[in-house]
């Protein structure tokens, strides 16, 4: 896999030994500015993909996710409702629910706080949540065994570039027991590094539909 070139201040931002940037206000501000620009670039690139290509990758990723979930023995799977060109895994969610696996969608219960997962099934009552994304309208919170998170970008160490709200990082840090986390997206979302900060929590694996599963620490 080839990655986009890092910006010219890479050596000043990243710690090669630990893979985590030092807590420095100037460096952190540089990272935030770079992430904002990279996020915009990557979202624009995936929105340019054809509907047929997005469907193709969605099907391939769903197949790999199904095998991953089976090996894990997951009984509660947290997924997401597609947004802004993200991979559409709703058909896979229906398959899971039909097979007896409980499916949960993330709900922003309070801004700046961890997500809450509520059970979803075909035909359940949905309401518009934050950013007008459909979420289950009611139900008790669930703790997934497996959380599937959409990526805007990802790096070789399975760090995820998201939308910048920090919701998945806060959620994974708060859930106990902590679920296995898998990032999903297009292969072209791979970048050299996201310049991970102390609050960033890596995915355990990343799946892009290319027939392989990138696992944390294996490149």
Concise account of the structure shown:
With 219 residues, the chain is of the alpha/beta class.
Q: What distance separates the N and C termini?
A: 10 Å
Gross morphology is: globular
Largest sheet: 8 strands, mixed
Helix-strand pattern, N to C?
HHHEHEEEEEEEEHEEE
Helix content: 25-40%
Number of strands: 12
Using only C-alpha atoms, the radius of gyration works out to: 17 Å
Strand ordering within the main sheet: 6-3-2-1-7-10-11-12
Mean pLDDT: 89
- Poorly predicted segments: 4-22
Any overview of this molecule?
- The chain has an 8-stranded mixed β-sheet with strand order 6-3-2-1-7-10-11-12, sandwiched between helices. It has a two-stranded antiparallel sheet with strand order 4-5. A two-stranded antiparallel sheet has the order 8-9.
- The model is unreliable at 4-22 (pLDDT under 50).
- The protein is globular and about 50 Å long.
- The protein has 5 helices and 12 strands.
- A hairpin with an 8-residue loop joins β2 (102-107) and β3 (116-120).
- It has helices at residues 10-13, 25-47, 51-72, 90-98, 167-174; strands at 76-78, 102-107, 116-120, 126-128, 134-136, 141-142, 146-150, 153-154, 160-161, 180-184, 205-207, 213-215.
- The longest helix is centred in the first third of the chain and has 23 residues, at 25-47.
- It is 30% helix and 19% strand.
- With 219 residues, the chain is an alpha/beta fold.
